[in-house]
Design goal:
Layout: E1 4-15, E2 18-30, E3 35-39, H1 46-53, E4 61-66, E5 69-71, H2 78-81, E6 84-87, H3 91-94, H4 101-113, H5 117-130, H6 147-159, E7 165-169, H7 177-194, E8 197-201, H8 205-211, E9 214-219, E10 222-228, H9 229-234, H10 239-246, E11 297-298, E12 306-307
Parallel strand pairs: 3-8, 3-9, 6-7, 7-8
Antiparallel strand pairs: 1-2, 1-4, 4-5, 9-10, 10-12, 11-12
Helix pairs in contact: 4-5, 4-6, 5-6
Bound molecules: adenosine-5'-triphosphate and magnesium ion.
Magnesium ion (MG) binds at residues 46-47, 169.
Length: 316
Amino acid sequence: MALLELTGVEKTYRAAGRIVPAVRGVDLAIEAGRTLGLVGESGCGKSTLGRIIAGLHPQSHGTVTFDGLALPTAYGDRAVRRRVQMVFQHPYQSLNPRLRVEATVAEPLRLLAGVTGRDADRRVDEVLHLVGLDASYRRRLPRELSGGQQQRVAIARALVSRPDLVVLDEPTSGLDQSVRGRIVALLRRIQAEEGVAYLFISHDLDTVRRLADEVAVMYLGRIVERAATPDLFAAPRHPYTRALLAAVPSMDPRRRGNRAPLAGETPSPSELPDGCAFAGRCANILDRCRAEQPILAPDPDAPGRLVECFNPVPLP
Ligand SMILES: Nc1ncnc2c1ncn2[C@@H]1O[C@H](COP(=O)(O)OP(=O)(O)OP(=O)(O)O)[C@@H](O)[C@H]1O
Ligand SMILES: [Mg+2]
């Protein structure tokens, strides 16, 4: 059994009189101690999925289990809630501006694990050390920290209760290249030491490539491909994955000519066509793609991979 399992998960919002299907039938598993990258264009539903997993809002349909326990009900138990934490894109907005670093980091320990006093102090020191902040930062307020330091505090806060899974929603997007690199190295080291699993949501394919063991690609509320990271980057099977990867300038000059950039507009989630939602933009389209919804299934030609496509990109 995987640590986290999603089956047929859907999330529908209502906005301005319209129904917005943000997540449309997602099956996904995350293994203990591993990193799953979640990528896809803006608005495809990544944060919605992350927020369901972290218990910030419930799914509309489908089942989510964490260690065999059904969510969101199981989150009524703080001993379960302690085990899944989230880090947000903008650390400053997610930190209480009036709480000093030590209080910010200690809060989940007190609320979720009932740990206070000396024991809490010791664990706060330990996680601050883990994220590379020495004791001199304990008394600072969020506004007295740099963006990278704020993100370290947010990560320390997420880790303090010894979670089994942390959802990281674009945790490095506001940071410059060198700080980003250091946060990635930090996340790796923490994973090695604490055995935590990550769902790493990001637009930054380069960072995903360095951090994730596997990658799930999302398009308009569905997972369209999932593969081990090196396999996905070496040979994308879904035409959408290929286009997404091609949008990033390649380091390899031989591959620069071989680009199929994303053409056309993403359809509105509230007015989806029949069939595959990517059909209107797809270079590999067949007649049946407009009539029939493909289903995410094991790729017969690429073991270990899942793809949701009637006409995948040929393997090299
Ligand atoms: N609270 C909400 N009410 C109504 N619609 C919402 C709400 N939150 C998100 N949506 C819609 O749900 C869809 C998915 O949004 P979501 O934030 O999950 O995307 P995302 O993949 O995280 O995008 P980004 O990369 O820009 O962060 C979008 O169409 C968005 O407009
Ligand atoms: Mg988002």
